[in-house]
């Protein structure tokens, strides 16, 4: 009989609060602890969720009852914490990104190989409807050979939580150090990886203390970065990571996906599929299939387009394309919180089932590296004024992990 999970949630900020109930209610989880370096935050979680506090990350690693940790700390801290946890014998769920250094990505893969434990990066955007639609249609052969695609994470810094903006030393992180909300959407749909990247950056001009030499721990002046990525399947992807841009929602999306037989385009709430025929091209409006179900009622309202632009209806509401994945969720999740285009429940279910059964999770270490590393290299290309750089790849999981 498999051993149920006892999970320590590391980092009690606003984001992790969406996930604690999902861990607590999952049928493969026995107990959930919470932990934060600021004691008051952990106490607020204790009061809200009825979870026991573990005093520190180090204490969680020493606690033999705890066999899994979920890391929701600042984004640039993930790599070393994940390696420590795996080496201490814990399964690991980590918020994105995998790490901020290529060496840490490699260390995580090596730790997984040596320990056999489960590591999963919680990339929300593989379950975003636009990416799921492209994956579905591409795998069905509707698009033919992939030619070119566009994906972006357009998240203006003014829309970030105050707790994030208050620490300007880390808020000015290079945009491509947080790349997976854009890279993963294309790469997951195609099941491929990046081989080369060229990139340019926008030197920030607002002078509000986030970006520029001396303003953050990276001396990073770039608030926006833009890249072209050559893919192993012969196609090319344009990937953007922008933090100073007059746009709000959907912050992550595939805007275009082109093949030799068919294509997809998306803007606002409009999703279109195009198919090449002998006499021209057919157009199919697939919006009702890809949009969140909440849009059905919203469409009757006169300010529907403005609501969409301000992210209304795009948090908890499932889309029809997500129906198959929704059907496999545990019944205990009915009525529980969700988020990020209804992706949270899928992610925690993925991790818990993988750790419990000893199977590969959806975004395992090798995939996490493929989604993360192109961004880290892209930032080097930005600093080099648009240089074309090779992207290292650590391959596929060994056969024993795929059984």
Q: What shape does the CA trace take?
A: globular
Q: Which architecture name of the domain at 125-316 does CATH use?
A: 2-Layer Sandwich
CATH names the topology of the domain at 125-316 as: Dihydrodipicolinate Reductase, domain 2
> What is Rg?
21 Å
Number of H- or I-type helical stretches: 15
CATH class of the domain at 125-316: Alpha Beta
Q: Say which CATH homologous superfamily of the domain at 125-316 is assigned.
A: Dihydrodipicolinate Reductase, domain 2
Helix-strand string: EHEHEHEHEHEHEHHHEEEEEEEHHHHHHE
Describe the main β-sheet briefly.
9 strands, mixed
Distance between the termini: 19 Å
Kindly report the average pLDDT value. Answer: 97
Can you put this structure into words, describing what you see?
- With 403 residues, this protein is of the alpha/beta class.
- The chain has a domain at 125-316: 2-Layer Sandwich (Dihydrodipicolinate Reductase, domain 2), CATH 3.30.360.
- The chain contains 15 helices and 15 strands.
- It has helices at residues 20-25, 39-49, 57-62, 78-87, 102-115, 129-139, 162-166, 168-171, 180-190, 287-290, 295-298, 304-309, 323-327, 344-357, 365-383, and strands spanning 5-10, 29-35, 52-53, 68-71, 91-94, 119-121, 146-154, 194-203, 222-231, 236-242, 252-259, 262-267, 270-276, 281-285, 388-390.
- The strands form two sheets. A nine-stranded mixed sheet has the order 14-13-12-11-7-10-9-8-15. Strands 3-2-1-4-5-6 form a six-stranded parallel sheet, with helices on both faces.
- The longest helix has 19 residues, at 365-383.
- The protein starts with a strand and ends in a 13-residue tail after the last strand.
């Amino acid at each position: 009989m498999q051993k149920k999970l006892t999970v320590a949630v590391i980092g009690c900020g606003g984001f992790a609060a969406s996930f604690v109930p999902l861990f607590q209610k999952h049928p493969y989880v026995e107990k959930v602890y919470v932990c934060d370096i600021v004691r008051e935050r952990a106490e607020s979680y204790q009061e809200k969720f009825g979870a026991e506090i573990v005093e520190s990350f180090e204490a969680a690693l020493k606690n033999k009852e705890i066999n899994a940790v979920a890391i929701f700390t600042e984004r640039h801290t993930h790599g070393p914490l994940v390696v420590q946890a795996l080496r201490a014998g814990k399964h690991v769920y980590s918020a994105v990104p995998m790490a901020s250094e290529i060496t840490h990505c490699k260390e995580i893969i090596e730790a997984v190989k040596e320990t056999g434990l489960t590591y999963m990066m919680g990339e929300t955007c593989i379950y975003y409807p636009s990416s799921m639609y492209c994956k579905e249609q591409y795998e069905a052969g509707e698009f033919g050979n992939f030619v070119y695609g566009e994906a972006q994470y357009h998240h203006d810094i003014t829309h970030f939580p105050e707790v994030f903006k208050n620490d300007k030393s880390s808020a000015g992180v290079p945009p491509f150090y947080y790349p997976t909300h854009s890279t993963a959407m294309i790469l997951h749909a195609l099941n491929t990886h990046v081989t080369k990247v060229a990139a340019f950056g926008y030197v920030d001009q607002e002078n509000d203390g986030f970006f520029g030499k001396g303003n953050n721990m990276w001396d990073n002046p770039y608030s926006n970065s833009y890249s072209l990525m050559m893919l192993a399947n012969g196609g090319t992807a344009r990937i953007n990571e922008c933090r100073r841009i007059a746009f709000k929602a959907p912050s992550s999306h595939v805007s275009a996906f082109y093949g030799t037989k068919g294509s997809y385009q998306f803007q606002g709430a409009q999703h279109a599929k195009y198919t090449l025929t002998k006499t021209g091209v057919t157009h199919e409006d697939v919006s009702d299939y890809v949009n969140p179900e909440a849009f059905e009622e919203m469409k009757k309202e006169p300010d529907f387009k403005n609501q969409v632009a301000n992210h209304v209806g795009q948090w908890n509401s499932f889309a029809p394309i997500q129906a198959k994945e929704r059907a496999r969720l545990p019944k205990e999740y009915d009525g529980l919180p969700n988020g990020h285009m209804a992706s949270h429940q899928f992610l925690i279910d993925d991790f818990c089932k993988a750790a419990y059964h000893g199977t590969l999770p959806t975004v395992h270490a090798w995939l996490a590296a493929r989604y993360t590393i192109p961004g880290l290299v892209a930032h080097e290309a930005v600093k080099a004024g648009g240089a074309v750089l090779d992207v290292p790849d650590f391959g596929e999981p060994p056969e024993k992990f795929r059984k």
